Amino acid sequence: MSRTTLSSREFNQDVSKAKRDSRNGPVFITDRGRASHVLLTIEEYQKLTGNKRSIVDLLAMPDAEAVEFNPPKLDKELFRPADLS
Question: How many domains, in total, are found in the chain?
Answer without folding.
Answer: 1
